[in-house]
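Researcher: We're teaching a course module on how sequence relates to structure. For the next exercise, students receive a sequence and then see the predicted structure as tokens, so they can try to spot secondary structure elements on their own. Here is the exercise chain.
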Amino acid sequence: MLSFAAACYRHRTARFAIAILVVFSVLAILAPQIAPYDPYDARILESMMPPSGEHWMGTDLSGRDIFSRIIYGARVSLVIGLFAVAISCSIGTTIGLISGYYGGRFDNLVMRMIDVMMAFPGILLAMSIVAMLGTGLVNVIIAVGIGGITEFARVSRGSVLTIKEEVYVDAARSSGCSDARIIFRHILPNAFPPVLVLASMSYGWALLSATGLSFLGLGAAPPAAEWGAMLSDGRNVMWDAPWAAIFPGIAILFVVLASNLLGDAIRDILDPKITD
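Model: And here is the predicted structure for the students to work with:
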């Protein structure tokens, strides 16, 4: 673990990506201390004010400070992405491990079900799940998490198909270890590196999907300080107050970019033989 952390520190791309994520995380944690205004305080007389010394990123149609709303919105958007990836990773990896280990008809059945799920675009599948469960942040997390299960299942299964033929797995089986112990004690640690890379890169996808659902009105309800909802509000005044949509978009851009860069960096660190 220490060697991996040291490798991340030495990797310039990883340092850059981690720095961005740390900055947004600190802003989210310290939002009450950093935000200059109440993110829900509507001041109609200050509606659509451009960026200035008083309001660094301007105000929206309701006169709310955009900088304060972006900081508080980080609390919502970052947590949504984190929990969605946790759901995708835990369920998808478990399915892939079990399916790849047992193989045969069971593996074939599971993979055909995964193929059916993959036939739907991720955002469309998430929208369908939200439509069944109802709107709300919790349902958005569940929908986005379920939408990402397929990738984790296929990646972990592919690793298991190779690892389960290794000598140490045969030795564990010969020594009387249960299937559960072999899967989670001997196979999972060796199948985890590609899952870790996928998890770091999936965070950006999860964030984009969650903000997209909120943008469409299926996630956070107004006047919630959430980046997707802020984009939805900003599009209505795009010509008169473009900053209302530009700054939330920039926040999403930086976090998604950092997520993708971190995933690439982790891949390079774990398997330096890979070349683009």
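Model: If you want an answer key for the exercise: The chain is about 75% helix and 0% strand. The mean pLDDT is 87.
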